[in-house]
Amino acid sequence: MFGFLNAHxxxxxxxxxxxxxxxxxxxxxxxxxxxxRIDNLPLxxxxxxxxxxxxxxxxxxxxxxxxxxxxxxxxxxxxxIARRAKKAxxxxx
Length: 93
Fold this sequence. Notes:
Helix content: 55-70%
CATH topology: Non-ribosomal Peptide Synthetase Peptidyl Carrier Protein, Chain A
Number of helices: 5
Order of helices and strands: HHHHH
Radius of gyration: 12 Å
Distance between the termini: 28 Å
Structural class: mainly alpha
Strand content: under 5%
Number of strands: 0
Oligomer: single chain
Number of domains: 1
CATH class: Mainly Alpha
Shape: globular
CATH architecture: Orthogonal Bundle
């Protein structure tokens, strides 16, 4: 699925990304963990747009609806965000 993701990427990075998103969007992600399945998140289409916008604001990287739709777990999304942020030279801490 996400062949461009490294299975050995730092869980510390994904933990940081999740924590920052949970602080920014507690009404959407307060109960989410890295292993939460995307289809189990109680998000409607406007919530998804809010998540995509928050990702860009918080990490200065784009997350597309296609990225969201391809992800099976929250961890899949976190890895994409972490990788793109690092590649763009943005600190995750």
